[in-house]
Amino acid sequence: MKTTSVMIxxxxxxxxxxxxxxxxxxxxxxxxxxxxxxxxxxxxxxxxVVTYVRFGDKVYSPIIAEGEADIIISFEKLEAARYSSxxxxxxxxxxxxxxxxxxxxxxxxAEYPENVLEELKYKGLNIWKLxxxxxxxxxxxxxxxxxxxxGKAAKQFDIPYERWxxxxxxxxxxxFVEMNKKAFDLGYNN
Length: 190
What we know:
Blueprint: E1 4-11, H1 16-29, E2 33-39, E3 48-56, E4 69-74, H2 77-83, E5 87-96, H3 103-106, H4 116-122, E6 126-130, H5 132-139, H6 145-153, H7 161-171, H8 177-188
Parallel strand pairs: 1-4, 4-5, 5-6
Antiparallel strand pairs: 1-3, 2-3
Helix pairs in contact: 1-7, 5-6, 5-8, 6-8
């Protein structure tokens, strides 16, 4: 089996590290060789956070170079644009339509670019977008955006739904399991 490369990108505090932990655990349980690498940046100040997850029969490095990502799971629109050059021509971006202003926008030194997702589509990129924030709130917490997006992205993996649910049960703190299962289901079915 070829190595599959997944990038999880977002803003600090959105739960990208939990999403990568969930995906890594699931893939290991499925028998794949898995390598995960986290790049935190200024995560505590709302900065960009990137996680690489690579899996296959034998994976030698967790790092994903430009043009190598099969899937990018983006927790925010501008982060999808920032990392779009890493996507393969036939790859997929699963993106939350939420806008989180970066620090230069907050302090007035820049403007948030308009039509970010439309520009990516214009470039010919394959994009699945959804309002993961609204779905997370339906599930019980705005913090479940990460699991909603994993639910949407799950359709790109040849892994049964039930195994994803088991991975959630084994990864998430017990008091948050039911809410996260609901969030995953909402993402999976939208």
